[in-house]
Amino acid sequence: MNAFKSFLRRKDIEISLKRYGIDALGAMAQGLFCSLLIGTIINTLGIQFHIGALTQTVATVAGVDYTVGGLATAMSGPAMAVAIGYALHCPPLVLFSLISVGFASNALGGAGGPLAVLFVAIIAAELGKAVSKETKIDILVTPLVTIGVGVALSALLAPALGRAAMKVGELIMWATELQPFLMGILVSVLVGMALTLPISSAAICASLGLTGLAGGAAVAGCCAQMIGFAVMSFKENKWGGLVSQGIGTSMLQMGNIVKNPRIWIAPTVASAITGPIATCVFGLRMNGAAVSSGMGTCGFVGQIGVYTGWVNDVAAGTKAAITWFDWLGLILISFVLPAILAPAINALCRKAGWVKDGDLTLD
Fold it and tell me: φ, ψ for residue 61 (rounded to 5)?
């Protein structure tokens, strides 16, 4: 047993929730951002601003035409797998081999491909690390093991994992359609809290394929955390803190939350309020990429995702036009209500003595 533990340490294989549930999951979200999400944004810009270079076909593969954004989107599987490998500190041969693993697991996982990529890429990466540089023909053995294990697991597990993820996502979305008030609160609060925690709300939403009304509630929760923390901590952190939290991430407050968990009350209660307003009043839907549901105001990706969904719905004929009420809902849910509610609730917490000056100061 000691020899095995020593081997794992030497290979930097750490079987832990942090390594797989935080590091790998967070990196996967970055891979999604740099492929699927960026590709979606590029396509939207090309269509809306009639930019020929972004809407014309730049490559045709197996009879399928791809634009610049289309190529980026098509590479989401490899991008996620390589990002996961990077987070797991994979040596070069393992890292590069994960490109094939990511493509296979994402393709075979279907709509739930991101979850399949997460599981398969982690296993393939760790086994690849285990055999890396253990033989004199490492350049053959390491890629063969990594790709062989990854593709085999993709064939065995990816379809089932993909279906399971989609069933869970469909259940959440069905429940939100059925009970928009209660589910609006639940989804908004949980996804918003996931965004502030050192895990990836974007990867969770992508893995579950969380779109529609539930996706709109998720956007509301993320915005409540980001804008809420940014505005209510303005006294301590000024403009730098406003920008870094408001369009960066509320995860910056995690250290302060550990010191005083009560500072989390205001943005969380705000999300419980804006979630049902998004679902019941404005019918806010995320019909763009599912990963956008968990991004909030980070780079305004959540808002771009909602807008992209509107554009797609209009093009498909399922939505007549983008109305002023649509824009009003998006602006109120994303920016105005969190900026009002969170500071107001935090003021009550201060009055109760739960929060004091300096509790929200970023290092």
Answer: -120, 120
